[in-house]
Predict the structure.
Amino acid sequence: MMGKRWIAIGLSAAVGAFGLSACGSSDDNSGSSTGSSASSGSSGGKRYDMTLITGVKGDEFYITMGCGAQAEAARMGVKLNIQGPDEFDASQQTPIVNAVAAKRPDAVLIAPTDSKALFAPIQQLSTGGAKIVLVDTTLDQPDMAVSQISSDNVAGGTQAAKALVQLIGSGGGKVAVVNVKPGISTTDQRAQGFSAGVKGTSLQYVGQQFDNDDPAKAASITKSLLAKNPDLKGIFATNVLTAEGVASGLREAGKKGVKVVTFDAGPKNVEDLKSGLIQGLIAQKPADIGKQGIDQAVAALKGQPTTKRITTGFVTVTKDNLSSPEAQGALYKASC
Ligand code: T6T
């Protein structure tokens, strides 16, 4: 009963957050959006050469983004190389950006791992002539980018708070956030949206802790949160690996009844949803982000209008709607 009621509310919250469509995308800038069918990924016989630099290797969100980008690149005749650091870390991503800059690609799609630290390396790429498209994460000063494409992460965090209000019910209680690390635009915004979303509700927000994108650390944070707050009622986990760790922590603590809502929909997250450790996944649209990233880069290279900011949507996945075509289509891939 509660699950079904929550889906209805979750979806209407999504409609409220994203305007006309619960899971569509919106553009908020002056330029017209790029019609990819009218374009191809070459100019005067030269095939465009692009690189996608993800936030971290092996994360199904970025794997799925890469699949979307690769399919669109193939369709457009663009040569696409995909790279990413071993860890979600600016000190590991920066040398990759510098090495890519030395090869002078036509365009780079990049998810900066830190909104400040990656500014100078990305600015240098841009000064070297590459068109820059920021995918997923962004910078504090993103002016060099021809386009920024991401979910509405603040709205997603607020949606998670509303979902926990519904799941926990009228008694309310304590809730916590397990987050990645400060300085990542997306996850910072999710926590910000969550904190705003619990204000004035029956939930008492006890704060956030950071796991450095390490599931083992997220598991130990979860266990110590439960030890310090035996009456904890809910947790919001802000990304794939954090969600994996929170679910493991709950399993290891043998704690039942804590409601968990998480961002993302990797295969392990889906397993944890099925087993009841997680009650709701806020799935992003990474393949769409990758596809639109290629389209924007091609448009910029051809001197066509680009869209400064593109917001992609979410699908809220629960145990109840998991088998629906919409939910199945929103799950992330471990390979293309
Ligand atoms: O949640 C995604 C992405 O949006 C975020 O910027 C970093 O973490 C993920 O890659 C998932 O692990």
